[in-house]
Design brief:
Peptide Deformylase; five-stranded antiparallel sheet; iron
């Protein structure tokens, strides 16, 4: 699938919802109309195509490999993901955009396990839990992803190794799950202070959105 860049307005970098935001624990709903505008709270409505570009830009800015719509406050079954080239010669541009090998816009996905053997070679991290990386998260080695693309076409992508891990991670966001759920409770306890900080940030951001919404209503 070719890189997704469009003749649209300059992309927007959205705030990423932090651990403790209720939207991260809700199961996302299917997208029934690819033409319907989507609106991230606090921003103007955009097409689904523009939303995909904005989500990529947000992901690149945060240094991620995937980003699910609930992480920007949209409870819809969509995520974006990237496969990067790690073999970059000295002196070349090492930015994420320059290293991009392939990118995916995934709408209404289903996930099928192809190789049920579990592996935990890679650390897991999450843009909604910045700075926390944990080894030992076991995930299936290979998966088949079925989804709709931005053109409304049905796609099938098979992935193994690290990309399979990315797909599983982002799919779980759409189910309202986080990677910490796959680890023993003592891991969450170890990060208790940092997680409490994320929860405070999440509450403060939701409060700002509520106040902004109230101001807009008073102007009408």
């Amino acid at each position: 699938m070719a890189p997704v860049w469009y003749n649209q307005p300059m992309p927007t970098v959205y705030p990423i919802r932090m651990y403790g935001d209720p939207i991260l624990r809700r199961k996302a709903r299917e997208i029934s109309d690819l033409e319907a505008p989507q609106q991230v709270a606090g921003f103007a409505p955009v097409t689904l195509r523009q939303l995909a570009e904005d989500m990529f830009e947000t992901m690149f800015e945060a240094g991620g490999v995937g980003l699910a719509a609930p992480q920007v406050g949209l409870p819809i079954r969509m995520f974006v993901a990237a496969d990067y080239n790690d073999d970059v010669p000295e002196g070349h541009d090492r930015s994420l955009k320059a290293r991009l090998r392939q990118q995916y816009v995934v709408i209404n996905p289903t996930l099928e396990v192809l190789d049920p053997r579990l592996e935990a070679r890679y650390d897991d991290g999450c843009l909604s839990l910045p700075g926390i990386y944990e080894p030992g998260v076991q995930r299936e080695r290979a998966v088949r992803l079925r989804y709709t693309d931005l053109e409304g076409q049905q796609r099938i992508t098979e992935a193994d190794d690290y990309l399979a891990r990315v797909f599983q991670h982002e799919f779980e966001h759409l189910e309202g799950r986080l990677y910490l759920d796959r680890l023993p409770p003592e891991v969450t306890e170890r990060h208790r202070a940092r997680l409490a900080e994320f929860q405070r940030e999440a509450r403060a951001y939701l409060k700002r959105l509520e106040q902004q919404d109230q101001r807009q209503k008073r102007r009408r």
